[in-house]
Amino acid sequence: MKVVNQVNPSPGRMQEFFGGDEDGAFVMVNLLKFKDKAEYADGRETDLSGSEAYAIYGAAVEKCLADVGGKPRYAGPVTGLMLGEVEENWDMVALAEYPSLEAMRTMIMSPEYQKITMHRTAGLAGQLNIKTKIGGF
Asked: Residue 38 carries which DSSP code?
């Protein structure tokens, strides 16, 4: 299995993700890998670590989620791997629930969300986003 962490999806991947027939509530699993030191696109000097920059984003994204009927479900550091192999473990797992694909799209296009993404980008070395259907097996 090939694993590639990314910070932002390609336009094609976005179209594929949001263009699917499946809708309804889902939980997004975020496997996060942080930079050692935050790097802001505007070149600002900072003493923030990647995880600290991402924490600024994480605190602000809760309101963005609530505005579209979503909610944070869990966030915590990765502390070990019991099964399988990866070259390097992720730093954190975060779960966010959305009522629909349209709600997520509305959130990520909102001006409020766009204002906070600089902290996400500054802190992340890469991540995987995995959409999971609510309702189990």
From this structure: -
The sheet with strand 92-98 has its strands ordered as 71-77, 92-98, 26-34, 124-133
What are the helix (H) ranges across 80-131? Answer: 101-109, 111-123
Q: How many CB atoms lie within 10 A of CB 131?
A: 14
pLDDT single digits (tens) 63-93: 999 999 999 999 999 999 999 888 889 999 9
Average pLDDT, the chain: 92
Identify any residues that bridge with 28 across adjacent strands, giving them in sequence order: 96, 131
Please tell me the number of Cα atoms within 13 Å of 48 on its side-chain side.
21
Segment 95-102 mean pLDDT: 96
Terminal Cα distance for the chain, rounded: 23
pTM to 2 decimals?
A: 0.89
C-beta neighbour count of 99 within 10 angstroms? 16
